[in-house]
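note to self: dont lose this again. the chain is below, predicted strucutre after it. 131 aa total, dont forget to put it in the shared folder this time
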Amino acid sequence: MKTNMGKVFVAFLCMMMCLSLNAQDLTPGMVVGMWNFSAPDAPYGYQKGTCQIKKTGENLSAVFTISGTEMTVKEIKKENNSYKCNFYVDGTYVSLTFKQEDKSKLTGNANAEGMAIPVVFTKTVKSVQAR
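---
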């Protein structure tokens, strides 16, 4: 009887550990870090760049670098399972919506002057939290 209880306890413990590891796969903090992005349908010169997403307190912010120019996004809002932010690129208002596909990939759309431009982000460096 004692060994059966021990086996049940060990099996239960293993199941709980597996569930907790699986739940950690796509936590909101996973978007924090350095990302390369690609937008092949964007105008020439704006098709690729980098994005550093930072967490300050409870808020997310970002710095996009496109063709050597940096643009700061002061706030990225989380809505359900997606993220939304707005910023200007060379005077053009851009609304970006993206979601996390896995630990190293984000996908979304940038809307600029009526154009819907698909964007794919790939993680380049492990997440770094701003202090």
